[in-house]
Amino acid sequence: MLGYLAFLFLPFVLDGGGDHGMNGWNQVVNGRLWLTLLSLVGFLPAYFAAYRATGPRLVAYMLAIAGLCYALLPFNPFANTYLIYAAGFAATTGRALWPRVAWLVALLAGLLAEVLLLGYPMFVFAVTIIIAVAVFVSTHLMGENTRKRAELKLSHDEVRRLAALAERERIGRDLHDLLGHTLSLVALKSELAGKLLERDPTASRREIDDVTRVAREALSQVRGAVSGIRAAGVAAELASAKLLLDCDGVSFQYQRSDLALTPELETVLALTLREAVTNIQRHARARHARVSLVADGNEAVLRIDDDGRGGALVPGNGLVGMRERVESLGGRLRVEAGAGRGTCIEARLPLPVGAPAMPPGTIAPHSP
What we know:
By secondary structure, this protein is of the alpha+beta class. The protein has eleven helices and five strands.
């Protein structure tokens, strides 16, 4: 941004050669160049301080920069450069838009009054107002984008937190339902077996056998509940992906089958999904995205499609890490990205032996 200060010295460059060389020398003698250099001594501290200031202090620095413009303008017609900087800071003086627009109008009105008073050509003001408005709007939009990104990150984090909270509550309910009744039954039958041990050993043995059977059933139920808990990783990532892409204007759809996944498979699939969705949000410029997680034979297949710009992909840390994680579990990662035809990422991982499988061909077709 500070490179634009070079415009302050254009009068001396334009008047410093040819038949006007003496004129440029006279300007130096008259102190105009030195006044311009002196103004920089006041501008630079105010400029850097304004970046860290808020509220009234920011307004004070903005007015100080505009004041340098008004003070230097009689000696240097390109002093309106300072007003451009002031207009940029005017866009950051508060949350409401109209007070910031009012500051911009006030700054430009002051410049217009001085241009008329000094008799400068009106194109000086016309050029200034065009650039000042452009700088004001771009700074405003940049601030809005920064604020929305921060809000989106907070929303994303909140979804993850709520998903984790809901999962903890579900785990608590499941464990209570599964183990509460079962442990009560084990306690009763164990007590009964102890009472029957001397009077009726055969009945006591039956009760002990029932305790063993109930304990095994409880163990099987707990393992089933744990499998459901492990599957929540992908579910949370799907919920986060939908929020992230919907907030970015990308239509998101997904298809998911119930698969018995080991913790390692669950982690790899969740991380692959997260990395792919992040790339869609940051780079793809897509309007539609689709995710499917299904079984194809004895493999779990995760497929992420988008209709973004596609093109040649440069293998970065994200893609390399994705591939390494998938291949470490004996899987395969395929990436297709045609220019203007979107990107398709497909991860295939072998399912554990005995996991429910679906017939081949159940994968959702690519629909950019």
